[in-house]
Task: inverse folding
């Protein structure tokens, strides 16, 4: 622990730049301040997760209101509190219009924080922060590139850790071990209380066609009804595919990458669909900043329709309604590559593109890559081999 600064070493300039952007947005929206309480926002505004709140004024003044951990009492901008009702006494002036991120806040928490500032008009900062976080700085892009390198290294170990007779759960445990040894933090951070997953999704054979309640591209029955997604104990046998979509969180930011494997030969249909997924990724990577997000979805659908594979695209029994999504601190950030998306790609955004297929009797096929949006193309930062590798 660095007792001289609350901001982790090397993050100072980045956090200062973020605070400036937040202050500019507060001013542009006629807001006096924002009060942040969720872990993602605390991390975004300080470089660390702590119990407490970040308060940022339109003048760019930052107050880190900390309950735990101890040890930062002498740090600049840090104020230890027992409860949020202590925050107003710390401020130079009280806000007339205060923003809260209501999309990740319970009604009880909203009511309490509103009463902390009874004279303030409360506004919602959710959309503002979604837009702010969607465009990644060079600092963030470098973290994501670092993720991509480690993610690739872990995936390249998969053929060597496979053993004949394994189930999907047994293989997932070994893949998780490889990821952890590579430095993966293990936390799959997702926005929304109805979205849960443990370190990723490993799908074998027909389990890939099992519908799930979660809004992920692929499903799986899971090992228990309390977490109905992913590996279910399915044996890995000849003629089936193994889809690996595992956690790429090595530093608080996440890359998303899917690769497929097979045991023995699989059907021509499965191979055709997998090759099409690679082609869709390469085609969509030719678009750049200024492209409507829905155009990428439409282009993918067009290619799938021309290939006659619509029935299997983005699921078979149950289909996902998108072909990609933004990511960063969370795995489901803006923009969304979906037919009704109003998002437009901006330089510096980071997107995962995942045109996947489920072939009955065989399993899931397709690849997913993470890209940084550039002026005239998408730069891939997850570069593990894309071909369907045989497990022996």
Result:
């Amino acid at each position: 622990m660095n007792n001289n600064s609350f901001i982790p070493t090397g993050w100072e300039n980045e956090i200062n730049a973020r605070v400036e952007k937040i202050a500019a947005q507060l001013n542009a929206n006629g807001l006096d301040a924002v009060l942040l309480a969720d872990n993602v926002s605390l991390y975004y505004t300080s470089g660390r997760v702590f119990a407490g709140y970040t308060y940022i004024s339109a003048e760019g003044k930052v107050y880190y209101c900390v309950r735990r951990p101890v040890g930062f009492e002498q740090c600049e901008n840090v104020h230890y509190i027992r409860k949020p009702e202590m925050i107003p006494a710390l401020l130079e002036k009280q806000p007339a219009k205060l923003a809260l991120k209501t999309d990740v806040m319970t009604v009880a928490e909203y009511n309490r924080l509103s009463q902390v500032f009874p004279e303030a008009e409360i506004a919602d900062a959710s959309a503002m922060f979604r837009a702010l976080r969607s465009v990644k700085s060079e600092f963030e892009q470098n973290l994501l590139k670092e993720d991509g390198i480690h993610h690739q290294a872990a995936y390249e170990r998969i053929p060597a850790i496979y053993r004949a007779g394994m189930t999907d759960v047994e293989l997932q445990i070994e893949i998780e071990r490889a990821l952890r040894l590579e430095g993966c933090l293990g936390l799959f951070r997702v926005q929304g209380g109805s979205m849960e997953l443990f370190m990723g999704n490993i799908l074998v054979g027909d389990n890939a066609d099992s519908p799930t309640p979660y809004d992920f591209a692929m499903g799986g029955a899971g090992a228990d009804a309390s977490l109905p997604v992913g590996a279910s104990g399915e044996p890995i046998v000849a003629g089936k595919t193994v889809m690996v979509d595992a956690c790429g969180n090595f530093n608080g930011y996440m890359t998303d990458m899917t690769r497929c494997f097979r045991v023995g030969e699989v059907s021509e249909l499965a191979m055709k669909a997998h090759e099409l997924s690679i082609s869709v990724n390469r085609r969509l990577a030719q678009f750049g900043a200024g492209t409507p997000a829905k155009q990428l979805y439409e282009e993918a659908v067009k290619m799938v329709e021309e290939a006659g594979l619509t029935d299997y695209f983005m699921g078979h029994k149950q289909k996902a309604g998108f072909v990609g999504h933004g990511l960063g601190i969370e795995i489901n950030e803006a923009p969304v590559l979906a037919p009704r998306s109003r998002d437009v790609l901006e330089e510096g955004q980071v997107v995962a593109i995942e045109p996947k297929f489920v072939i009955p009797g065989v399993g899931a096929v397709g690849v997913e890559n993470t890209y940084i949006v550039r002026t005239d193309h998408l730069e891939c930062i997850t570069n593990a081999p894309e071909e369907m590798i045989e497990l022996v």
Summary: The CA atoms of residues 255 and 333 lie 12 Å apart. The two ends are 46 Å apart (CA to CA).
